[in-house]
Write a structure and sequence with these properties.
Layout: H1 2-32, H2 39-74, H3 80-107, H4 115-138
Helix pairs in contact: 1-2, 1-3, 1-4, 2-3, 3-4
């Protein structure tokens, strides 16, 4: 029963983390088009901050805690598929860190990047997620 509860919480946390990781860079794309200091720009700042603090950050922490608990409970540590998954989840966490830094840039009106730049980065979490899902489902040796 503990395994099923942890797995359920892990899946819920992953869904919430990914929802935020897919939405935040899309907000950045729109934020690029808003004039600095405008009502629209200030609204984007609030949306980005709340999304990161209330959803993305807690979901990432829960994803890691539940995922590592599952790995510990099932002895996955030295299995090749698990190591590959951890590498991709570390990459997702690094992207999360980049998004956090870019949000701070927008908050301070220091963004110098284009909407096209953020459109590219909007796809990175999706590609990492696809890799992670295939690794977890197929569990290649």
């Amino acid at each position: 029963m503990l395994y099923l509860v942890l797995k359920s919480l892990h899946i819920i946390a992953v869904i919430a983390w990914m929802a935020g990781m897919l939405y935040l860079p899309r907000l950045f794309v729109y934020h690029c088009g808003a004039e600095k200091g405008s009502v629209q720009s200030e609204t984007f700042k609030v949306m980005e901050r709340r999304l990161l603090r209330a959803i993305i950050n807690p979901a990432m922490v829960l994803t890691w805690v539940m995922g590592l608990s599952l790995a510990w409970l099932n002895g996955y540590w030295l299995q090749g598929w698990f190591i590959a998954k951890i590498v991709l989840v570390l990459a997702m966490s690094a992207v999360h860190g980049l998004f956090s830094r870019w949000r701070r840039d927008f908050d301070a009106d220091r963004n110098t990047r284009s909407a096209r730049f953020y459109r590219f980065w909007n796809e990175v979490p999706t590609l990492l997620m696809i890799g992670i899902v295939f690794i977890v489902v197929i569990k290649p040796s």
